[in-house]
Amino acid sequence: MELEIAPMTVKDLEEVLEIEIDSFSFPWSRNSFYTEITGNGYSYYLVCRLKDSKKIIGYGGIWTLFDEAHITTLAVHSLYRQAGIGTLIITRLIKNSLQKGAQKVFLEVRDSNREARNLYEKLQFKVIGKRKNYYLDEDALVMMRDFIETETDIKGSVSLCPDNH
């Protein structure tokens, strides 16, 4: 399976929304994505496509503000989960933020989302807190990875993934 990673564009939004609606109880709107990719100077959003068909199979976004970054969203099409797509996307997002000067990366994840938590833990994120009712129906765990205090960095994870940039 050959993949392409590219910045998200307005043309990608219909396919992104299909994955979004399938993945989340409270999905983002088209307008939310549109605003993020056209009007937020701190954001960086990517899509992952199958190289042959150009079908979008995953996406993610991150904000970078000074020395901190915040992963805003990450989703993979249900047929392609557990195949390393999430790792590929998140490592590219983090790599971009590190190049912009981020030293810490934060995210929220549903307490019950074991698959996502496993991914983040594999990438050395640690639970640092909890946000009550963050998802309206469930708490969120706040996770963080500090790239200053850890000896390893994201380059090791990136090298595991093809670089079709």
What does this entry look like structurally?
The chain is of the alpha+beta class and 165 residues long. It has a single domain (3-158), classed as Aminopeptidase. It contains five helices and seven strands; from the N terminus they run βααβββαβαββα. It has helices at residues 13-23, 30-39, 85-99, 114-122, 155-158; strands at 3-7, 43-50, 56-65, 68-76, 104-110, 126-131, 140-146. A seven-stranded mixed beta sheet has the order 1-2-3-4-5-7-6. 29% of the residues are buried. The model is unreliable at 155-165 (pLDDT under 50).
Q: Total number of helical segments?
A: 5
Order of SSEs: EHHEEEHEHEEH
CATH superfamily (homologous) name: Gcn5-related N-acetyltransferase (GNAT)
By CATH, the architecture is named 3-Layer(aba) Sandwich
Oligomer: single chain
Based on Cα principal axes, name the global outline: globular
Largest sheet geometry:
7 strands, mixed
Catalogue the unreliable spans.
155-165
Might you state the CATH topology name?
A: Aminopeptidase
**DSSP helix fraction:** 25-40%
In CATH, what is the class?
Alpha Beta
Q: Mean pLDDT, rounded to whole units?
A: 90
The overall strand count is 7
**Rg for CA atoms:** 15 Å
Overall tally of domains: 1
For the largest sheet, list the strands in their spatial order.
1-2-3-4-5-7-6
Roughly how many Å apart are the termini? 16 Å
Structural class: alpha+beta
Strand content: 25-35%
